[in-house]
């Protein structure tokens, strides 16, 4: 499911690193403070950097 952030401000996005399986959860409302609200969840996934192993864009995500 690809959605624009502005359409799901009350949700959370869980990003799981494919390299080390580290999971990071972001509240969409807070993400919109630092990125454009017109970005899609897929664009966020591609830009995400794992804080544990530093892999960029090699991940999966779910919106809850």
What does this protein look like?
- By secondary structure, the chain is α+β, with helices and mostly antiparallel strands.
- The chain is built from 2 helices and 3 strands.
- It has helices spanning 28-31, 41-47, and strands at residues 12-17, 23-27, 59-63.
- The protein has a 3-stranded antiparallel sheet.
- The longest helix is centred in the last third of the chain and has 7 residues, at 41-47.
- It starts with 11 loop residues before the first strand and ends with a strand.
Content-based structural category? alpha+beta
The count of β-strands is 3
Distance between the termini: 11 Å
Query: What do the pLDDT scores average to?
Result: 95
Largest sheet: 3 strands, antiparallel
How many individual helices? 2
| Strands side by side in the biggest sheet | 2-1-3
Shape: elongated
String of helices and strands:
EEHHE
Rg on CA atoms, Å: 11 Å
Question: Helicity range of the residues?
Answer: 10-25%
Low-confidence stretches at least 5 residues in length (pLDDT < 50)?
Answer: none
Tell me the strand percentage band: 25-35%
């Amino acid at each position: 499911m690809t959605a624009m952030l502005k359409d799901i401000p009350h949700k959370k996005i869980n990003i799981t690193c494919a390299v080390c399986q580290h999971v990071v959860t972001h509240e969409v409302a807070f993400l919109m403070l630092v990125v454009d609200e017109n970005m899609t969840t897929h664009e966020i996934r591609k830009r995400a950097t794992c804080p544990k192993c530093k892999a960029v864009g090699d991940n999966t995500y779910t919106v809850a």
